[in-house]
Amino acid sequence: MSRSHLLWLTLFGVIVNQAVAQNRVAVAHLVSQNISGSIVFTETSNGLQVTGAITGLPAGNYGFHVHELGDTSTCDASGAHFNPEVTNHGGREHNVRHVGDLGNVVFVGNNTAVATVNFLDTIITLRGRNNILGRTLVLHEQEDDLGQGGHETSLTTGNAGARVACGVIGIRYPAEPWNSATTSLPSLVIYALSAMFVYLSV
Ligand SMILES: *[C@@H]1O[C@H](CO)[C@@H](O)[C@H](O)[C@H]1NC(C)=O
Ligand SMILES: *[C@@H]1O[C@H](CO)[C@@H](O)[C@H](O)[C@H]1NC(C)=O
Ligand SMILES: [Cu+2]
C-alpha cells in the first residue's frame, strides 16, 4: 500500500470518526428535604437541550446555575458560578454571562408548584472548555436578578440568596469513555485498522 493510500485511509477514518461521534447526555438530580427534580442535558446539533421538572418550592422564580465544583457535601461546597471567562454575572440569554448562568426556573401552581424546564443553551457544553460534566447544578431560594438588580451581589450571583438544592452533573449516556473529543467504539476500531495498515506498509 502506498503512502498516499494510507493518507486517504487515515483521512477517511477521521471523517467517519466525526460522523459516528455520539450525542452525549448528562443528568443532575436536585434533592433536599422538600425539593425533588431531575434535569437532563442532551447534546444536539444546535446546543445543549436542558429538560426536566422540579417540585417542592412555592410558585415563583428561582436562580438556577452551574457552579464550578462537583463537591456537594454541602451546596455551598460547590463554589462559585462556573465562570471560566471571568466575566460579570448575567442572564442566560445575555451576551455577558457566566458560562454557568442559566437564569431562573419558574415554579407554577398553587399547592404543589412545579417548574418545567425545557430550553436550549449554546454556551454550556458536554465537551471542551465549557464542559459542565462533574460540576454542580444549584437551585437558589430567591429569584436571580440576572445582574440587573443593582444589589451589591447582582453582578456576582444575581442576588439569588441561599442554595436550596444541588446535584452533581454526571454521565448518563454513553457509558464509553468521554475523555476524547470524539470517542465511540467504532472510531477506535477505525483508528486501530489505520494504525495496522500503517504498520504493515512500512
Ligand atoms: C420543608 O417544608 C416544611 C413544610 O412546609 C417546612 O416547615 C420546612 O422548613 C421545609 N424545609 C426546608 C429545608 O426548607
Ligand atoms: C391558583 O388559584 C387561583 C385561585 O384559586 C386560580 O385562579 C389559579 O388558576 C390557580 N393557578 C394555578 C396555576 O393553578
Ligand atoms: Cu448559583
UniProtKB/TrEMBL annotation:
Residue spans crossing the bilayer: none
Enzyme class: oxidoreductase
Enzyme Commission number(s) of this protein: 1.15.1.1
Cofactor: Cu cation; Zn(2+)
Gene Ontology molecular function, alphabetical: copper ion binding; superoxide dismutase activity
SUPFAM superfamilies listed in its UniProt record: Cu,Zn superoxide dismutase-like (SSF49329)
Superoxide dismutase copper/zinc binding domain residues: 36-169
UniProt xrefs under Gene3D superfamilies: Superoxide dismutase, copper/zinc binding domain
CDD domains in UniProt: Cu-Zn_Superoxide_Dismutase (cd00305)
Cofactor comment: Binds 1 copper ion per subunit. Binds 1 zinc ion per subunit.
Superkingdom of origin organism: Eukaryota
Entry annotated with the keyword Transcription: no
Signal sequence region: 1-21
Oxidoreductase in keyword set: yes
Keywords from the named record: Antioxidant, Copper, Metal-binding, Oxidoreductase, Signal, Zinc
Catalytic activity: 2 superoxide + 2 H(+) = H2O2 + O2
Pfam families given in the database record: Sod_Cu
Stated role: Destroys radicals which are normally produced within the cells and which are toxic to biological systems.
Family according to the record: Belongs to the Cu-Zn superoxide dismutase family.
Official protein name in the record: Superoxide dismutase [Cu-Zn]
Organism: Antheraea pernyi
